Amino acid sequence: MSLPPNATVETISVRRLAIDIVTPYAQAVERFRSLVPPIKLGDLRNATSPDQIEAVVRDTATTTGFVLFNEFNHGHWISHFPPFTTAPEAAGVGHGAHRFIFGNPLFAITMIRESIEAAMHVPLDCGFFEQNDGSAKMVILLPDGLVAGHAGAAENEALHVAARALEAKVFKLIEAITNS
What we know:
With about 180 residues, the chain is an alpha+beta fold. The protein has a single domain (about 15-35, about 65-180), classed as TT1751-like domain (TATA-Binding Protein, 2-Layer Sandwich). It is built from seven helices and five strands, in the order E-H-H-H-E-H-E-H-E-E-H-H. It has helices at about 25-35, 40-45, 50-60, 75-80, 105-110, 145-150, 155-180; strands at about 15-25, 65-75, 95-105, 125-130, 135-140. A five-stranded antiparallel β-sheet has the order 1-5-4-3-2. It is globular and about 45 Å long. The termini are far apart. InterPro entries: DUF302, TT1751-like_sf.
């Protein structure tokens, strides 16, 4: 396959954070859901001012600042396609796999103001994966490399500052999930 003459391909550096959570998988997923409540997407789409967007976020009663945009329960359907090379040893342990799309438009705008291309990587996403012993692993790609790791944004210090501020919020969320 050839690319158009005006296309560029660039390698960026992204940090992948994986956290082993000793809590049972289902409990870890529920803890995430309790800390990242769903936002009413219709209300967000219909908002016509910053104040209305703030109200939609506030109405979620989020304690972490993060809201849930979507959830995919891959574990529900993947069990229909065995065999797995990472088959759990323990009886009753499944192949739990959840992907969550989460963030906050009020956090995102600080990066998008600096680079419209940052919108490609907000909201964030993370995954929870059931381990063979029934515990969970959380995986997330950290935003600084995603939104500011390409050549067009590498020198934009304000973008890096905003992305690192978002990462700090993510770290606090992870702390809340793991300290339950």
